[in-house]
Each structure stands twice: as C-alpha cells, then as structure tokens.
Amino acid sequence: MEGMACHGCLIQYGLWANTLTSNMLINMYSKCGFLEHARRVFDEMPERSLVSWNTMIGSYTQNGNEREALDLFVQMQREGTEFSEFTLSGVLCACAAEFAVFECRQLHAFALKTSMLENMFVGTALLDVYAKCNLLKDAIRVFEYMPERSAVTWSSMVAGYVKNELHEEALMTFKKVQTTGVEFNQFILSSVVAACAAIAAKIEGIQAHAVLFKTGFILNFFVSSSLVDMYSKCGSINEAYLVFSCVKEKNIVLLNAMISGFSRHGRSMEAMILFEKMQQIGLQPNEVTYVSVLSACSHMGLVKEGKKYFEMMIKEHNLSPNVVHYSCMVDVLGRTGLINEAKILIDKMPFEATASIWGSLLSSCRVYGNIELAEIAAKHLFEIEPENAGNHVLLSNIYAANRKWDEVIQARKLLKETEVKKERGKSWIEVKDKVHAFMVGERNHDRIHEIYSKLEGILEEMRKFGYRCETQHDLHNVEENQKEELLRYHSEKLAFVFGVMCLPSSAPIRIMKNLRICGDCHVFMKLASKITGREVVVRDTNRFHHFRNGFCSCGEFW
Length: 558
What we know:
Keywords: Repeat, Transit peptide. It holds the Pfam family PPR. Belongs to the PPR family. PCMP-H subfamily. GO terms for molecular function: RNA binding; zinc ion binding. There is one protein chain. The chain is mainly alpha-helical. Helix content is about 65%, strand content about 5%. It is built from 29 helices and 6 strands. It has helices spanning about 1-10, 20-30, 35-45, 50-60, 65-80, 85-100, 100-115, 120-130, 135-145, 150-165, 165-180, 185-200, 200-215, 220-235, 235-245, 250-265, 270-280, 285-300, 305-315, 325-335, 340-350, 355-370, 370-385, 390-400, 405-420, 450-465, 480-490, 490-500, 520-530; strands at about 425-430, 435-440, 510-515, 535-540, 545-550, 550. Strand 1 (about 425-430) and strand 2 (about 435-440) form a beta hairpin.
C-alpha cells in the first residue's frame, strides 16, 4: 500500500517517466507479488534501460511465470536491445523451471557467440538447466569449461549429480570442493546429506552433519529435514529423532520427514502420535504426510486405522488422494489378506493403476496364495514394465509355493523368452570407512573362508535352540538337502557374520539389501541377535528390520 501511495505521488509530480524511478517501481511491485502492475509500468515506460528488461525478466522467473520471461527475452531481441550476462542467466533460470531444453541449447549457442560462456553467472545457470533436464553430460561439459567457479556453481553441480541419482559422484565432487577453499552454503550441504541418505552412507552423513554444525546451517529447516531423512534411511532412527527434537520451531517439511522415518522403521504408533501432534500445533497435514502415515499403517497391518486416515484425508482436509495414496491403501488391504477388497479399490480408482499398485497386489497374492488375482496382477505388470524380471520370478514363486510345477515351468520359460535378467540378491555392510558387498554363495571376499567357518559355528550354536533351515522359503524344485545348502549362504547371513567379526561388540550391525529379506534369513537374524547379544538392523526393499534379543520390530509382518 505504501508503494502504491508513492507511485501515486510520482504520477502527481510528473516523475513517472523517469527510467530509474520506473525500474524501482517494477522491482517493488514484483517483490510484493503484483506482476500485472509491474508489467503495466514496464509497458508504459517511454524509454527502457537494460536494467528495466533484466528486472522484468527476473520478476517473471522469481514469481513462477517462466514462459512470460522467455517471451519477454524474445521481444527484447526483436527490438534490438543489448543484453548482459545477468539477462542471459535470468532467462536460463526460467528455462530450468520450465525444463525448456530446446531454448536452453539456443541460449547456450547464444552465449558462445557473444563470448559470455566463460562468465560465472551464465555458466552456473547453464549447467543448472542441463542438470535439471537430466542432460548431465552437457552440465559436466559446461562445468569443466568454466575458468572460475563460485559456491553456487559447485552447489549446482552436486545437486545435479543427486538429481540424476549419481550419489557417489556427488560425494566425490563435494570432496573436491573441500580442497578448493570455497565457502560452503546450506544448499550444497543439503544435497550432500541427500546423497548420503540415498546410498545409506552414514559415515559421510555424520561428517556432513559436523560441517553443518560448525557452519551454523543446522538451524535451517530444510537442512534439518535432510538430516532426519538421512539418519532414518541409514537405519539410525534414534539419531534422526534427536536431530528432530533439537529444532525448536517445527514446520511441515520437518514433521513429514520424521513421520516418514518412523513409518520406514515400523514404528507406527510414534508416526500416528506425531501426526496428531502436528494438528495440535496448528499445522495441517498435506499429501506427503498422508503417504507416510498410510505407509505406517501398511507396515503393521493396521486396516482400521488406514481406512480412517484415507477417509480423513478426503473429508476433513479436502485433499484428493493421488496414485501413491491408493497404492498405500492397496498395500494396507492386501497385506492383511483383504485381497479382493484391494482389487475392488483398484477397479474404482479414478486413474490407471501403476506398476507399484499391481506389484503390491501380486506380493499380497504370494503371501496368501491367491493364484487367480496373482495372474491378473502379473499380466498388467508384464505390459507396464516388460523389462522387470522380478515380476516373472514372483509369479513363478507363487506357483511353486502352491506346488504347480507345470505353471512354474511355463513362467520361467516366458522369462527366458523375454530375455530379461533376474536381479541377484546382494547385501553390503560398512566397516571402517569401507563398504563390503556379498552375493549369495560369495567366493571373492578376502576373508571368505573365515566368514564361512564363523557362520558354521553360529549355525551350530543356533541348532541347540532348535533352529532348522526353513526350506519352504526356497522355491526351487530340488531335494531338501539342496534347499538347505542354497539357504545357508544367503548374502545377508554372510554380511552379518562379517559384522560380528569386525565391529565392536557394542556397535549395531547395519546391513543393506537390494531385495526383500527371505523368511529363513528373518528367523536366522532373530536367533542370531539373541545368541550374540548384538543389535542387527537390516534394510531391505520394503522397510527396516531391527532385531534385538530374538525379536524383530516388524512383528512378523513385512
């Protein structure tokens, strides 16, 4: 209002035509969110300077009107107005938000012709566009060409690697930043923490946490949320909660990260309590919140609560469930044996079911032996993701569990004909800053003979407690003794034994796995935690399992 009053005075005293004054008015209106007023001032200017164009283009970009920013730049060129590196970097930012690859390449050529590519602002904006458009090779080429790099340049490069799921490269780039002496900002550190979360690199995550603490960025909401996410994905839910508790004023992003962490670790009660506390402090749950709380219900088979939250989402908070929410509900129903109800929900959805939804139904059919619906789900999955061998294997395993060996042969023949390859089970464990990976029946590890010898000793001790290989979890059509041999050397067992050998007795053994943990290994971990007195944390594709004193946090539901 004060700005508009000043504008009125400028008109009254005949100063509205002054270029400098008009530029200030454009800036004022855009920062107050009145873009139409800003554009009217711009259009009525009798004479525009370069600052006028830059301010208007920047205003559109900052307020989410990227297409108008690009159109205005075209108009600027047609009028023959000279531009600067700030104009070009502003338009490139608009391209990044619009994912406008074609325009970005044109601007890249433009920067080369006008010798602006070496400018730090232009180069940084250009690599940011390429990275956000998943053209990482182009982003790297621009980055390597730049003679000078700022903290923002390095931050954009690290964020680009993270966005394109090259997390190890992101961490290596951060190590280079540390040697250059460039001052860190919260954006690069937040990207580094996100990279650590994605690959469960806890040691590097702790180091990033220490840097955040030293630099004071730990107080930033988004940084704290990244740390909570990182610790929970690394299997350290208590550390995640400690970070969460240290933030005095909590926002929706931080609360969502903590609820998601509780859900991932099977601590459904804590997730639901935090969901209630969120509303008590005046924060309204959003779509992300409901994904986490529905996942928590799914992990513990809480059908009644799941249905309540799904209904609350629509009726109380006026949120339209998206495909992820429906996927969670299908999982809630399917995991508790309500497979037909889950199929009815899929049929009633206002959009096409995704691979995730059909995959959830197929997994539930495996648990409850529903061959009819398994075949329907598998048929849809073969159409949606024909390259995924896991779907063929899962259907084959459902047939095998029901002793339908002819169908098993047909399913495996189809798998062979499609020429897709099954993903091999792999587990890894971090010991003394080094990651040790194991495959089933591993032979290449330096200490594999010691590991096998130690494993035999543990198995011998476990047999005294009545442990026997649960051969029903191996679905090959072979003799019982062969099944026992196949199950004995599963990758997570080898990783566990290596952890017992190398980690201090007080340290938890944290194992990451690329597939779902099998029933026999689940029983093994429970008994092994009791015999060795060790806490064991296993992250598989579904969730985290915390094994202590012969019990698992999943409550036998995973």
